[in-house]
C-alpha cells in the first residue's frame, strides 16, 4: 500500500495557499462580469443537474484544486478501490460497495481475493428479490397464516440510517397495505413505541446487523422476540412451549448479516438469512441485503433502480476527467472551504420533505468516514479533516437556523437539493404549491450568494442602526442540486454522489475513510459501566469521580 501523499507538501497546496492570501469573494461581481459563469460551473451526473456557480471559487482556484486531486492520487486511489485492493488498511479489507451495484453480466467480471464478487452479489440480490416478492404477494405468511402488513427493521448505524432514509424518501412507491418501521435505539422507548399498535400476526422483523454483535440491535431483537411470543400467546395464537416459539420466530424473524453463524445461534433459521461481505462498510451497505426492508416495501424493481442510480455515479467517477467529475469537484470545494477558508460545518438542505432523514444519513457517511486524525499509514494528519455535516429540509430550516447562515460570523457552505416534480402535486386556490416551495429554495440560494447591500436597504427607506441589522453580506456559498423527480434512480445517484465526495476528501487528507475505531472506546466503557449501574460496587469503585457521582444520582432517583 502506497503511503499517503501529504497534501500540504504538494505544489497545488502552495498555489492554493497563495490564492487564498489574495482571495476576496465577490459573487456579485463575478456574476456581473462573467456571463458564462453559470454555464461553465454547471455539471450533470446522471439525472442530477449540479450548479456550482454560487460557490466561492474562481477558475484559478478550481484549477489548482483539480491539480491537488491529481497530486494526491485521487484517480489512482479510486482505481485501487474498484480493483478490490485492501485500501481499508486498518482492517485489511477491500472496499467494494461499488460492486453491489454492478449490473449482472458486467465485464470484465470482478474477482477479489480469489472470490467471484459479481456472482456472489447477484446471488444474494436475487434471493432478496425472491423473498421480497413472496412477502409482497402474500406467499410468505405469519405463524397464524396471515400475510405481512408491517416490516420492522431492527438495526443501528449503517444497518438503520440507509434503509430508513431511503424508505422515507421513496414512500410513495410502497405497496399499499405494506409499510416499514425502523427500530434502532437501545432506549427501550424505541422498540416499545414502534410495536405498540402492531399486530404480531402480521409483523415481520428483520434483524439487520453486519457483525451481529451490536449491543443495541441484539437487545432490541430479543425484546421484539419476547413481544412476539407474549402477544401471540396472549391471544391464544401460539402456545408457550418451545416448538410454538421456534415456529413463531421462523415465521416472523429474518436476518441480514455477514455473520450467518451468529444469526443461527440467535435462533433465526439460516434459510431466512441474507448475507453480505466484510468488504461492505456499514455506512455503505444500504445497497446490500441491508436494504431488504426496501426490497419488500418498495419492491425489487424499485430496489434495482436504486442500485442502477448508484452505478451511474460510479461510472461517472470512473470515466470522467477530474475537472468535469462532479463528486470530485464537490469534494475539492469542501477541501477549499475546510482547509483554506476556515469552514467547520457543512449544511445539507433538501427542499424535499421526503429527504427529511438525508442529513442524518449523511452524518454517518461523512463523519464516520472522515472524522479521523491519523492517515492510512498511521501517521498524523497534516490538515483539518472531516466537517460537521448537518441539516434539515427547507422550508422548515428557514424558520429556525438560517439566520445564522445568512448573518452569523461563520462560513457555512450549504448544499440545496430539489426536484422539479413533487410526489404530491397539490394546489392551493389554483396555485401549484410545489412551485411556491421551490421559489423558497431559489430565494434562499440567491439571498445567500448576493445578499443585500446597505445602499439597497437605505433605498427602501430604512435608516440608522437598522440599516446594518438589515444588511446581508452575501458571499455565502451554496451548491444547487436539481433533479426531475425523486425516483429510486435519482436517490441512488444522490447517495452515490455523496459517497464519492466523501471518498475524494478522504484521499486528499490521506485518511482511511472505511474504518471507525473512534466508536469503540465508548462501547467498551458502556460494558464496564453497566454492572456499576446495576449495583456492582466493585465496578462502581473503579469509575472516575464524575461517573461515580452520576451513577449515584441514577441509583438514587431510579424508581
Ligand atoms: O459502532 C459503529 C458501527 O460499527 C457502524 O459503523 C455500523 O454501521 C453500526 O455500528 C452497526 O453495526 P452492525 O451493522 O454490525 O450492527
Automatic annotation (TrEMBL):
GO terms for cellular component: cytosol. It comes from the Bacteria. It is found in: Cytoplasm. GO terms for biological process: gluconeogenesis; glucose 6-phosphate metabolic process; glycolytic process. GO terms for molecular function: carbohydrate derivative binding; glucose-6-phosphate isomerase activity; monosaccharide binding. Pathway: Carbohydrate degradation; glycolysis; D-glyceraldehyde 3-phosphate and glycerone phosphate from D-glucose: step 2/4; Carbohydrate biosynthesis; gluconeogenesis. Its EC number is 5.3.1.9. Its main location: cytoplasm. It catalyses: alpha-D-glucose 6-phosphate = beta-D-fructose 6-phosphate. Belongs to the GPI family. Catalyzes the reversible isomerization of glucose-6-phosphate to fructose-6-phosphate. This is Glucose-6-phosphate isomerase.
